[in-house]
Structures are given as C-alpha cells and as structure tokens.
Amino acid sequence: MxxxxxxxxxxxxxxxxxxxxxISNPIAxxxxxxxxxxxxxxxxxxxxxxxKFGGLIVKADVCNTRPITERPKTLAFVEVDEQSNDGKxxxxxxGWMFAESPGLNAVEHPLYDVWLTxxxxxxxxxxxxxxxxxxxxxxxxPDQASPD
Length: 148
Hints:
Elements: H1 2-18, E1 23-24, E2 27-34, E3 39-46, E4 50-53, E5 56-65, E6 74-83, E7 89-98, E8 107-108, E9 112-120
Antiparallel strand pairs: 1-5, 2-3, 2-9, 4-5, 5-6, 6-7, 8-9
C-alpha cells in the first residue's frame, strides 16, 4: 500500500508539472450580435466590471489564456444579466465561455447573442513574429528594407 501511495504521489507530481502556465488577463473581448439591426459588435470588458450590450449586462470574472499547445486556449467565466425597462435584472447566463468553441456556451437571447472571442493584456509583450524566408532575386518588402 505504501508503494502504491508513493507511485501515485510521483504520478501526480509529474502530471501537475507538465501542465502549461495559465495566464490571467485583465480584459475579456466579446462579440455581440444585435438580431434586430443585424449588426455584430466587438466590445471589451475589464475583469470584475460590467458592460452593457443592448438590454444585456455582461461581466467577466476571469479571463485566462494558455499557450498554443494547450486546449482550451482561451476561456472566461462570464455572468450575463438581462435588464428590463423598469431597471430590474434577471440572470440569464452564468458559466464558462470558450473562445475556440463559441457555440458551446454562448448567450443566445431573443434579441442578442454574446460570445467570447479573446482575452488580452495591453501590457503584455507582443507575440514573436516569424519572418518569411528570403527568395533569391526578390526585393524585400518596404518595411524590411535595410538602410543603405
């Protein structure tokens, strides 16, 4: 029994160590569809704050991303309330949204749809960009031209 516990402990240690770092972001990015106007709008919500979209109030409690090798890469815990004309609020959604699977847990309302598209941190460094390989005899693009 002691050996089983020891093996189980080591297995848990290695599995926990293999998980990628979760990155918390201060801003959740959503898309909203106004079905009456037929217009899709992108809007941002700071974590812990509320943002009105039509007759809905959207609040993100957390917005996490993971490296590209992990799934799901982008998820947020979201609460959505419907506000009536008299100012009363009714919770219509509370749960996790996944940017890579927008249809899984999107808010589907008679007048509005809302889904998570991204999480972002304006203070994070930009992701590394790959340069296109040079083709012999081809001039470099104007922004890549070397000063002479």
